[in-house]
Structure formats: structure tokens, C-alpha cells
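Kindly review this protein for my students:
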Amino acid sequence: MAGKKCFFGLKVDRQVDGDKMNHEFLKQVLAEGGEYAAIASCMQCGTCSGGCTNADRMDILPRSLVLMIQRGEWEKVLQSQALWLCTSCQICTTRCPRGVRPSDVMEAVKAIAIREGIKNDSVRFNQIFVELIKKRGILFEPELMQQYGGMAAVLEQAELGIKLALRGKISPFPAQVKDPKQFSAALSKAVEQ
């Protein structure tokens, strides 16, 4: 039986270069939150990488990352710093002519990597950030700095912190959400999903 073909003549289970896609890995990424990412539709045009504001800092560009996901090259994807440099600005997503959502793909792969136990500074920062939000409902920046970088980081940024506090941009004291019960209920609901 002949393989089904898409409109530009390639079989739908194959990448642009003809390699067979790794559907198991694709399913895992899609299930993690990339269900509308259309990873298999990527034609490797590079528009996502061309618009990426952090492309000059990334070791693997968004186009290549999507290709590696199609191929199932999980170890290379996992070791990439590109995951942690993505700011989710959505430029790649809005510019894609095929409807691929690279920023959703990055977020889904980050979640898988964290669940699999990857350790790096970005993961540590995100975990501290989430714990502080759970604790108070509102971020208290000096506490985040202290937990992430220690007292040295707080002292290093003290001058900037004072300027921001004097201009009313940050509070020198921790704030609390207005309705902690409502916040806790919303947080519990989000965790369930």
C-alpha cells in the first residue's frame, strides 16, 4: 500500500529531508502541551529562526530544534541551552507559514526535561520562582534574588533595588494576594490540569 502524501509530494510520516519521523517522541511532546504545535508540518524554511530575538545566543536554532524533535534526537534536545533561552515572545509562532508553534514546542520540551530530572541554573531559577509564588501569591524580588544567588546577589543589586523602591517600582516589603483562599483554589485547579 502506498504511503499517504501531503500536498508537496512527501509522505506525511516523513520530514522534508525524507527521514522517517519519530512518532513516539512527537506524541510525548504533543501530550505535554504542544497539541496545537503542528510539529510534523514544519518544512524547515527557517522563518522561526530568522525572527528569533535570542537566536544569536542559542546553540540550536528553533528550526533545528523542531527538526531534532521530528527525528527523536532527545539527548541533543535535552542538552541544548536553546530551551532555556527561549523567552516565549511568540515571534516564531506568528511568523510560521505552516502554523507550527515553536514556542509551545519549547515549553513542552522544557516540562519534559524538568520531569526527567535535568538540572541547570534555569531550572533552579524557575523552581525557586514557582515556590515563592505558591508561598505568597506575589513575587518578592529580593527574596528571589537571595534564594537564587545568595546574599552576594542581593548586595550586588542593592543600589538598583533602592532606586526602584524610591520610584515605587518595587516594594521593600513583601506583598500578599488580596484573597489567599481564591488564589490557592486557582492554583490547585491549575495543578490538576
Remarks:
- The CA atoms of residues 91 and 110 lie 18 Å apart.
